[in-house]
Amino acid sequence: MRYTAVVFILLLSLGAAASAQRASIPEEGFTPMFNGQDLFGWHADPTVWSVEEGITVGRTQEERQEGTFLIFDRPISNFILRFDCRISAEGNSGLQFRSIELPDGAPWRLSGYQADIDGAAFYFGALYRFEEYRRGFISARGEFNAILPGGGINTVENFADGEQLKAAVKIGEWNSYEVIAVGPYIETRINGVAAARAVDLDTERPSGKILGFQCHAGTPMEVKIRNARIKEL
Q1: What is the reported pLDDT for 170?
Q2: Among 93, 99, 114, 174, which is 20 to 30 Å from 134 by CA?
Q3: What is the per-residue burial (b if ≥16 Cβ within 10 Å, else e) of 146-155?
Q4: CATH number of the domain bearing residue 16
Q5: Of 164, 165, 147, which is closest to residue 156 (Cα–Cα)?
Q6: Is the pLDDT of residue 21 over 50?
Q7: What share of the chain is helix, strand, coil (3-state, %, to 5)?
Q8: Is 156 helix (H, G, I), strand (E, B) or coil?
Q9: pLDDT exceeds cutoff 90 at 175
């Protein structure tokens, strides 16, 4: 019980510090991630990802057995990333980060953390650990959870009601999305509202420095990304 209380206080302090750091960083410190003309600086399946009228588009035309990612060429681990996104009603996407490319021979596939984007806003803003053929919640909307050594999940704080946070998502429209990854602390924000938070204390679990945007397996879908910009920390 004593150990739990100490961890709880430590995690709250880390969360508050990271949130304060995020709020203090000016917009002008960010670097654009796309040139608005092509996918220079990224690699992906060219039958899925393209640039249309300055907007990055991921579009699948038929049922798919595997997801595919638009992958950033430069490795990065600690960052604040901001972008606008719009997704079809049946769409399932996300920002993958601190990831590795799967070594099974299939290109453009990643394993690691994911900030979720979905057309129905069931999970929009939630944090996952997305791996081949499986995914696990880290924090749903409104949750601040800790990933413990060994991979267990403990609740630090329920800082908001998840269903009420769903109202921050503009279904079928453009949404601003922010992902913060600073040391062990991770946070998502939707249209300026904190959506999910986590602290990862599982230092034995492998993680990488790759990030990318996803087109999920399954139903044909479309996701659009614009104004993506990043600040490395």
Answers
A1: 97
A2: 174
A3: bbeeeeebee
A4: 2.60.120.560
A5: 147
A6: no
A7: 15, 45, 40
A8: strand
A9: yes
CA neighbor of 165 nearest in space, from 107, 220, 125:
125
Please compute the mean of the pLDDT values over residues 150-160 and round it to a whole number.
Answer: 92
Secondary structure element (H or E) that encloses residue 121, with its range: none
H and E: helices and strands count for the chain: 2, 17
The secondary structure of residue 29, as a DSSP letter, is G
Q: Look at the chain and report how many structural domains it folds into.
A: 1
Sign of CA dihedral 104, 106, 107, 110: negative
First to last CA, the chain: 35
Residues 6+ apart with CB under 8 A from 46: none
pLDDT value of residue 1: 40
Q: Read off the pLDDT of residues 65-86 as tens digits, 9 standing for 90 and up.
A: 788 999 999 999 999 999 999 9
pLDDT at 131: 59
